[in-house]
Amino acid sequence: MAFLDFVPNLGRRVLLTIPNLGAATRFLLRSLVAVLNRHFSIQQLLKQVYGFGVRSLLLMMIAAFFTGMVLGFQGYYALVRFGATSALGTLVALSLLRELGPVLTALLFAGRAGSALTAEISSMKATEQLSAMEMMAVNPFAWVVAPRLWAGIIVVPILCVIFDLVGIFGGYLISVPVLGVDGGTFWAQMQSNVTFSGDILTGLFKALCFGLVVTWIAAWQGYAAQPTAEGVGNATTRSVVTASLAVLGLDFILTALLFT
Amino acid sequence: MAAEALVELENVHFSRGPHMVLAGVDMRISQGAIVSLMGASGGGKTTMLNLMAGTLAPQSGRIRVAGQDLQALDFEGVYRLRRRMGMLFQHSALFTDFSAFENVAFPLRRHFRLSESILRKLVLMKLEAVGLRGAAGLMPAELSGGMGRRVALARAVVMDPMLIFYDEPFTGLDPISVGIIATLIRRLNNALGATSILVSHDVQETFSIADYGYILAGGKIIAEGSPAALRASDSELARQFLGGQPDGPVPFHYPAKDDYATALTGSVAAGEVI
Ligand SMILES: Nc1ncnc2c1ncn2[C@@H]1O[C@H](COP(=O)(O)OP(=O)(O)OP(=O)(O)O)[C@@H](O)[C@H]1O
Ligand SMILES: [Mg+2]
Question: How far is B107 from chain A (nearest CA, A)?
Fold first, then answer.
């Protein structure tokens, strides 16, 4: 019974999302081209880059450190059976660079900076700040939305690089001093097996896409929110949930497309 | 009214979905006047201001501001026109992450390249005019409702607009602040040579400063004229509104599909006494 309800419900949900998708896409395009508007300012952009960075940096580093250490343990456990612990450096690095770095960076960014962005834009809407801006002939897309969107696109790959580096360091700490893998082999293997274009660039490309998608969803949810206190709360929750699922779904698509 | 019209509305219709908000409104607002717009809550007054500012577009009818047809203007044209308009919002709408000073400076910074010293002078002059020069450094969260309203007023007029909209500037203020704001509206209108459109429920205060008034009911203008003429009007609608009687031609209720008894009980047989 519940299942029979589930199918039409799902259908209705999908149908309801389609017009929203159109509006959200128009919103994205308007925000992206708003960099050309004379009210777009580089200072605003840098302020947002700094804000996003400061908000997420420590969180990212802690998460990366633990992730790297766990990778060291689990990788060792798997490789030691084949007597292949010399490949541990490669395993840690590839897991982080190709997959865990971009995905976890984006998920943490969605939870930390993305939710704050949705709350900020939706409360600006609820308190008529966006309308006031429009009344003062300042395009809110150029002044508010575009700097935040571009900042997200810029910041997520940078955070991802930091995540990768700290993660690899965490993996090293567990592999070499704790589990006794040879340090020279750890780095040498990593160096000869990780390729710049195949592994590093693929990971950064993913991070760039995730940065765009997370910031887009966060800004759109804020912009489309009901202009009430309750609407702000709902939009914030929806922003994190939607952005996280979108990152995981998109990760699958990108991995499949870029898989070589 | 001999003066030239700054704002003209011709047979303007506007609806929100199935709900008709404005059903054919005509208005002619003279340059330099303070014009009051009164009407029941939810009657479409804020909507009307938004139409005149071009933030909403009517389904039919024409709106002309300063001789330009808003419907014929492109995005840029509307924005250019808006630089000469100011609006005081119903809830102040100050930017919460800027100080009072930066709020007032915002439009100047965005539209002009001014030296910091000239900008400072202009902003402090406007803050002085609303009596809040001393509060320039405070953040919006540190201002009381009335102070916030006055900062928003300074911001609305900092570009020396030709047309100023006031959306319920008196609500929620103590009688002294109401008097101060009313005097300010009059003073600013005269000093800037601007035209002001004032939405308010406060009949006394509004009529003390307005040159002309419109009363909106049921999506139409039901009465217009000078305050004295409106007071003397023998229109039952106008008298009900200005006198504040709950019963009369203007319905207090938003139209509902079913009657109250049905809504309360789910369904009620015709004629049943509850
Ligand atoms: N964003 C919106 N979406 C849908 N309907 C709206 C919206 N804004 C206003 N309305 C509807 O339009 C009508 C007119 O609203 P408006 O805000 O213009 O009234 P008002 O005269 O300013 O009332 P008040 O004196 O209470 O401020 C109302 O019936 C309201 O339900
Ligand atoms: Mg209103």
Answer: 6
Confidence of residue B139 (pLDDT cuts 50, 70, 90): very high
Distance, in Å, from the CA atom of B261 to the CA atom of B272, rounded to the nearest integer, reads: 10
The domain tally of chain A equals 1
pLDDT at A4 over 90: no
Contact B110 A134 (CB under 8 A): no
Return the pLDDT at B272.
47
B196, B200, B205, B206 alpha-carbon torsion, rounded to 10°: 40
Whether residue B22 contacts residue B10, with contact meaning beta carbons closer than 8 Å, is answered with no
Q: Judge whether A225 lies within some domain.
A: yes
On whether residue A25 sits in a domain, the answer given is no
Q: Pick from A42, A129, A39, A146: which is nearest to B112 by CA?
A: A39
Task: Inform me whether the pLDDT recorded for A34 exceeds 50.
Answer: yes
* Inter-chain CB proximity A129 and B53 less than 8 Å: no
Candidates B55, B82, B93; nearest CB to A129: B93
A128–B90 C-beta distance less than 8 A? yes
Q: In angstroms, rounded to a whole number, what is the distance separating the alpha carbons of residues A72 and A77?
A: 9
**pLDDT number for residue B40:** 83
The reply to whether ipTM tops 0.90 is no
Q: Does B112 touch chain A (CB under 8 A)?
A: no
Pick the ligand that lies closest to the CA of residue B50.
1
- Give the pLDDT of residue B202: 83
Asked whether the predicted pLDDT for residue B155 surpasses 60, the reply is: yes
Are A179 and A72 contacting, i.e. CB atoms less than 8 angstroms apart?
Answer: yes
- Compute CA A91 distance to the chain's CA centroid, rounded to the nearest angstrom: 23
Q: Which residue range(s) make up the domain with A127?
A: 39-258
% of chain A exceeding 70 in pLDDT = 94
DSSP state of B255: P
Residue-range domains of chain B with CATH: 5-84+161-265 (3.40.50.300)
Q: Does A134 touch chain B (CB under 8 A)?
A: yes
Select from A127, A128, A135 the Cβ nearest to the Cβ of B53: A135
Spatial separation of the C-alpha atoms in residues A227 and A229, rounded to whole Å:
7
Q: Angle of helix B175-192 relative to helix B116-129, nearest 10 degrees? A: 130
Distance, CA of A136 to CA of B108 (rounded, Å): 10
* Nearest-CA residue for atom 30 of ligand 1: B42
Judging contacts by C-beta atoms under 8 Å, the chain A residues touching residue B80 are 137
